[in-house]
Design a protein that fits this description.
Blueprint lengths: L5 H12 L21 E6 L24 E15 L6 E5 L12 E2 L7 E7 L2 E6 L16 E11 L14 E5 L1
Antiparallel strand pairs: 1-2, 2-7, 3-8, 4-5, 5-6, 5-7
Pfam families: FimA
Subcellular location: Fimbrium
Protein name: Type 1 fimbrial protein
């Protein structure tokens, strides 16, 4: 009996590799969206669109264990000059990024203190947390014209805090709906 050539075997493999796969079409997905010319002027606490919110200095004893919070500080995004084309309202969305804890949505600390993150919340409602970068984040009531989107930020302990500086950044976008 004659042995098969390795070339015949390779050719057979190629035939099977390029044979058409059996498939059936089960449906069609249509995507739709819009790009709007809507624009607004935004100012952080009455300044420019970007700026710094300074939290008060707190003692490590104010952040003794996971879940402790301190230093609540309000801030506003002042919205004006909105021109709505195809949209009727605007709100802010805090985006994911290098300084956002992907699990909790809190802002990670880039300063020297350890076991401290920054937690965003709506207005004076400390219970209504804003989880940056998450699609289900709480949002301020959409504005239909000029006004303020009110938020707050506070220190959040992820363990017993140690002394040092606390700093972080987050990018936000205006969402027109």
């Amino acid at each position: 009996m004659k042995a098969s050539s390795p070339y015949k075997f390779a050719a057979a493999l190629l035939v099977f590799a390029y044979a058409p796969a059996a498939y059936a079409s089960d449906g069609t997905i249509t995507f739709s969206g819009a790009v709007t010319a809507s624009t607004c002027t935004v100012k952080l606490n009455g300044g420019s669109a970007s700026g710094t919110v300074t939290l008060p200095t707190v003692s490590t004893s104010a952040l003794p264990s996971t879940g402790s919070t301190a230093g609540s500080t309000p801030f506003t995004l002042d919205i004006s000059g909105c021109t709505f084309t195809g949209a009727t309202a605007v709100t802010a969305y805090f985006e994911a990024g290098a300084n956002v804890n992907g699990t909790t949505g809190r802002l990670t600390n880039t300063g020297g203190a350890s076991n401290v993150e920054l937690q965003l919340y709506l207005g004076s409602n400390y219970a209504s947390k804003v989880a940056a970068g998450q699609s289900n984040q709480n949002a301020a009531t959409p504005l239909t014209g000029n006004g303020q989107l009110r938020y707050g930020v506070e220190y959040y302990a992820t363990g017993a805090a140690t002394a040092g500086s606390v700093a972080s950044t987050v990018t936000y976008s205006l969402i027109y709906s």
